[in-house]
Amino acid sequence: MAGTDENAVAAADDALYVLTAVLLTPAKFPSVLGDDYPEACAALGLPPVADGYGLVLGQDGDGGRWTVAIDDVSLVAVAVASWDCGMEYDLSPDERTVVAALPGWPLALAVAAPGVPAPHDPGPESAGRPALSPPDTAVWGPAQRRLGADEIALQWAQWRGQIDDADFPVSGGAGPADDAPGSDAEGDAGTGEGAEVTATDETDTTDEVNATDEVGAAEKRAEAGEEDDAGSAGRGGVRRALAEARAYVDTPPPLGRVWSSFAPGDARTLRADGPGWSLVARTDDIAFILLDDEPGEVLPVGRGPLLPGLLDALDEMAVRPN
User: Fold this and answer.
1) Are 292 and 149 in contact (CB under 8 A)?
2) Which domain of life is it from (predicted)?
């Protein structure tokens, strides 16, 4: 949101012209910054306090980039909700709510305040510490993997529409329909390559998505410690991700690694992250997994006898931003 004279707050020794704001809380934080809330806080050098922060991004009068962390989380939440609805909102935090004024921006912004020089990092004489900068998304890695999962969660219908339930094979000669959502059939491991995703600020999709491991077979193999055959890195990564997600149920992970949000009907959209993987699912449907070790690949996981229970258990323990 473009800054105005009314949207100015004190930061460092100058006024800050507000451009945008985001929440940094256990239930809502920019996933590009980390797999969980403490990791996202660490990226900014902030302690992971229980109530979280509001992050106000803007420029000073010289054009310098600044990120101001405030403890008035509700103020930022109202501002973000208003802007998302296309409404104007004068975000003017009280100076007494300022926790830290950090040079730089942790997120990439394509806007600038009018009437001031172009955005640039403040000089060391005024910053007092290295400037924040957005995570590198030029190559596939954790930041891009998490952005890709964000996009799938937002565009679930588009991604789900690429999946034919018949692509999930079943054992024992049963027909494909036996492994459709809601079935109790046990699926065999698929051999599909998955879809490609490029996660910078938006994602691109291919026309074809093939199925990989059904969760029952995947979890059983992972828990048994079976090694993968050559060329099955994607399937092995899926097994590991599912096993680690299952472990979250018994040993809760750091805050923010699992969250649940609204979905159509009585379903919930689930998101879970772990070292090297991200999972996106609907509690009444299938799941998608992205892996650091599989650049650009989106690996679908069919709905068999164990996936519903896993998703329900994750939903019960998840933080809920809404």
Assistant:
1) no
2) Bacteria
Q: Distances in Å between the alpha carbon of 3 and those of 11, 15, 20, 63, 177?
A: 14, 11, 8, 12, 55
How far is Cα 198 from Cα 237, in angstroms, rounded to an integer? 19
As separate numbers, helices (DSSP H) first and strands (DSSP E) second, the chain gives 8, 11
pTM of the model: 0.79
Residue type (1 letter), 277: W
Which pair of tokens denotes residue 14?
């100058």
Query: CB atoms < 10 A from the CB of 282, how many?
Result: 21
Q: Is the CB of residue 29 less than 8 Å from the CB of residue 40?
A: yes
**Cβ–Cβ < 8 Å for 67, 46:** no
Q: Say how far apart CA 270 and CA 153 lie, in whole Å.
A: 8
CA distance 20 to 68: 11
For residue 179, what pLDDT band results from cuts at 50, 70 and 90?
very low
Number of C-beta neighbours around residue 150 at 10 A? 19
Residues with Cβ < 8 Å from 58, sequence gap 6 or more? 3, 7, 9, 11, 16, 17, 18, 19, 20, 66, 68, 113
Q: Which of 232, 255, 258 is closest to 310 using CA atoms?
A: 258
> What do you get for the CA distance between the two ends of the chain, in Å?
23
Structure token pair of residue 170: 């079943």
Cβ neighbours around 117 below 10 Å, total:
13
What is the rounded CA–CA span in Å between residue 113 and residue 7? 10
Structural tokens at position 257: 């690694």
* DSSP-based three-state secondary structure for 167: helix
**DSSP 8-class letter at 66:** E
Give the single-character DSSP code of 32: G
Contact 187, 288 (CB under 8 A): no
Q: Which two tokens stand for residue 194?
A: 């998955």
Domain coordinates in residue numbering, the chain: 5-127, 142-317
pLDDT digits (tens, 9 = 90+) for 267-307: 999 999 999 999 999 999 999 999 999 999 999 999 888 89
